[in-house]
Amino acid sequence: MSRIMVTGGAGFIGSHLCKRLLDEGDEVICIDNLFTGRKANIRGLFASPGFEFIRHDITLPLYVEADRIYNLACPASPPAYQYNSIKTIKANVLGSINMLGLARRVKARILQASTSEVYGDPGVHPQTEDYWGNVNPIGIRSCYDEGKRVAETLFFDYHRQNNVDIKVVRIFNTYGPHMDPNDGRVVSNFIVQALKGKDLTVSGNGTQTRSFCYIDDLVEGMLRLMESPEDFTGPVNMGNPEEFTVIELAKKVIELTGSRSRIVFLPQPEDDPKRRRPDIGLAKRTLGWEPVVRLEEGLRKTIAYFEAMGAWET
Ligand code: NAD
Ligand code: UDP
To answer: Which of 36, 169, 221, 239 has a CA that sits 20 to 30 A from residue 277's CA?
Structure first.
């Protein structure tokens, strides 16, 4: 049994991770400021004696004992991270420094939830970990993209300079139950719009692509990375390599919900990446990991979740 801290633990990915760790018999300390996370995501976990929740902002120092730290605290959807862009940078810079300092003091292994956004609007396709990316340093997505890039830099500097035991995962678009119905990401937006019978809002002409990974697959990969040998730090891509255009996703959601919604086209947001697909060769070779949930199956489960929560009332 380990004592595991999950920052951002009340968010979409974090809440699944907390549940999985408790199921494995670990003690879990969930740290969250509830900016984009929701108490509803973790309500079921309080029944477990190994679960603890601390409302805390990681831009401030924190003193707790832990063997492992999963650092997920950061708003992740474009509307959420652009809402207070300076705060987003602070979560990545000050938050990473605080969590790395804690890991150094208590000799905990620490895993950083990085992102495919470090590749920006990629010039290499599919994206491999050795690609350095194509990121606008001064645009509206930069607070998140550059924030996550400097967080990776901090992780590797604490590793080289202070021997902190680090792991870095670059997560590609992940979806599933516990997504916030209002946070603006494409899968939750389309499902909620379809359930409400509203128009599905496709940005640009919808030919931009994304590769969608179901949450259970990602959580399995994160656990394998955390428990991998010390000399394997990553960065390692995790995502589903099946690539879809946004229009294809919209049509699939309409089909699976049986909705009569139509598709409308909105302006393309600034710096919206045109293509994204992970090369997951490194994760396969080193961790024996690859996703097993196909898009249709994952979408059915996610639709069932939003139906059960009455997402059409939100
Ligand atoms: P989310 O918004 O649901 O979760 C983020 C959580 O962090 C929320 O609970 C929020 O309240 C909390 N948080 C934000 N700032 C904080 C702060 N300063 N102090 C304490 N808590 C704070 O998003 P998610 O999709 O679960 O993403 C989790 C992590 O994974 C993020 O770091 C994100 O960048 C990364 N990621 C997610 C995806 C994806 O597709 N979901 C892709 C790439 C990377
Ligand atoms: N998108 C869309 N309609 C929406 C929300 C998003 O067409 O209602 C598009 C968005 O412009 C992007 C893609 O879907 O091209 C994925 O967007 P998301 O915000 O989910 O993730 P990210 O851009 O960070 O990959």
So the answer is: 36
